[in-house]
Structures are given as structure tokens and as C-alpha cells.
């Protein structure tokens, strides 16, 4: 019995000798701190925030609450990295201001605008007339469907009426032929 505890003690002592040595801590001298970037253009796109202004409105979740007019800000596009290749060291960023092209108001542009406006108006009128024609066709198709569905029922009714008519004619007693009156007797009259 004393053998088991002594074996356990010996095993614990030997396992302690086999433990790993403590790791060495190596101190690496730090590099010089880099300068803070003055501009992130060409490296990162900034986020785009839009402001929406609402007038008074009733809260749809709680009909007893009314909101006064106030602006609501929404992030339209979050900030993200510019991953385009850097050509020849030239850095540039597309900002909201540089992406918007100024409106050119010359005669050619105005003429093209008016031409597109007229084409859009003509297209809208054609679409409206086509919708009217399609609604008329839909009504005619519904009427045709209704008449087609009534056809077999009407045929059954006509067949029933014909059979009733022939039954009535069969039940009718034959009329005896009228005796011909002697013409001579008629003349004497």
C-alpha cells in the first residue's frame, strides 16, 4: 500500500524536472514615429452624409406622438480606403465637389433637352393610349368569356325545350279530318 503513494510522489518530482525553460524576452528598439498625415486624399474616401429636412409628422409607431420639424442626418456612403493603383506618385481623390460637373447652358444643350422632353411626352401619350386599348380588350375578353360559358347552358335549355315540345305534341289528340261538304248541297243552300 505504501508503494502507490511513493510512486505518485516520484512521478510528480520527475515531471517537474522536465518542464520547459522560461522564454527569453527580447527588446527591439522602436522605430521613429511617423508623421501624421495632413491630408488623406488619395488614401481614403471620406464618408458622405446627407441631411434631410422633414416637416411636422405623426409618429407611425405611436399615433399619439407628433414630431416637430427637424433635420435627419444619414450616412449615405461610409468612409473607405482608396485601393486604386498609385500612378507615378500622383495622388488624387474624387470628392463630391470635383465629381459634380457644372451644368452647361448653351443652345445645343437646351435644344437636346427640349428634344428629349418632347420624346418623353410622346412616349407617355402612347403609353396612355395603349393602356386604354388594353383595358378595352380586357373588357371584351371578359364579355367573350362570359358568353362562352353561357353557351353550353343555353344549348341544354334548348334541347330540354325541344324534348318538352315533342312530348306535348305526342300527347295531343289527333284532330279528325274535316268531312268535305258536298258542294252541290252547299250551292243549294
Mean pLDDT: 77
Distance between the termini: 165 Å
Cα Rg: 51 Å
Question: How large a portion of the residues is in β-strands, by DSSP E?
Answer: 5-15%
Count of individual helical segments: 4
Global structural class? alpha+beta
Low-confidence stretches: none
Structure write-up:
This protein has helices at residues 3-17, 96-99, 107-171, 183-188, and strands at 44-45, 48-54, 57-58, 66-67, 70-77, 80-81. It is of the alpha+beta class and 189 residues long. Among the domains are: 45-82, no CATH class; 104-169. Strands 1-6 form a two-stranded antiparallel sheet. A two-stranded antiparallel ribbon has the order 2-5. A two-stranded antiparallel sheet has the order 3-4. The radius of gyration is 51 Å and the shape is elongated. The N and C termini lie far apart (165 Å).
Could you give a short description of this structure?
This protein has helices at 3-17, 96-99, 107-171, 183-188, and strands at 44-45, 48-54, 57-58, 66-67, 70-77, 80-81. It has 189 residues and is an alpha+beta fold. Strand 3 (57-58) and strand 4 form a beta hairpin.
Main features:
189 residues; alpha+beta; two-stranded antiparallel ribbon; 6 strands
Secondary-structure map:
Blueprint: H1 3-17, E1 44-45, E2 48-54, E3 57-58, E4 66-67, E5 70-77, E6 80-81, H2 96-99, H3 107-171, H4 183-188
Antiparallel strand pairs: 1-6, 2-5, 3-4
